[in-house]
# Entry
Amino acid sequence: MKTISIVNQKGGCGKTTTSVNLAAAFAEKGYRTLLIDLDPQGHSTIGLGYEPDEMSLTIYDALVNVQIGISNVILGTKVEWLDLAPSNVLLSGAELDLSGIVGREFVMSEKLRMVRDKYDFCVIDCPPSLGLLTLNALLASTGVVVPVQVHYYAMEGLKQLFQTANIIAERFDPCRVKILGILLTLVENNTLLSRQIQQQMREFFGDLVFDTAIHRSIRLAEAPSAGEPVLIYAPKSKAAAEYRMLAEEIVNGSNLVEQIRTLAEDINNDRISAEQTISNKALVRR
# Structure
């Protein structure tokens, strides 16, 4: 089972929209898919037609109770091959409940092992923070998709996220997580600023940015109110086509590269090379 976390500590960048519709796109391709709503706001739960406050069991129960597995909280959805592990506001207390547990960072990993043979893909909708819940998701994942709104402040926020990814890779073993790519969201091609930010992102991050971009869309904004992914709500819409393209890009693995580690190695190699050059010049002068 490939587990993909949708992560960005900044809110309003399209994490939940991407989680719901990417999971639906995988399911539409015939992959057995599980969507885990790991945000206490429960928006992925709402986006698939459920009311968070009416849930008797949620992902919170699976995380804090050793007697409850993820399979006990899973619900079916309107989308064939797509299941949901729902969430509600109770999840906001999970970090405190888990704080005294040894190995608390790997609780999600352990829970997912029990269902890994039942699914081809698991998509995790992470909260807008880099706390214990997000850390659990990252350590349980094989890949990360980072949705980024095409605004200047969004670019600045990526630095902290990439630093966190590097720290996790260095300090925790095992850690299989790789950055699959940066997904540009809420794109507006009719504005100069949006086009400029897109160009800057692609120039700076290169192949780390997905070829697919998600454009701002009325149909995409309407779909959650119907409790459906846009692939069901408006299957012929541009937004539905874009999420199908994103799923195809991920399945093909075109961005499945350890880009962050490679960038870090390049920077380190440049530093070493510079130090050696300075040292050689000093020897020549002597």
Q: What stands out?
A: The chain has two domains: 2-255, 259-286.
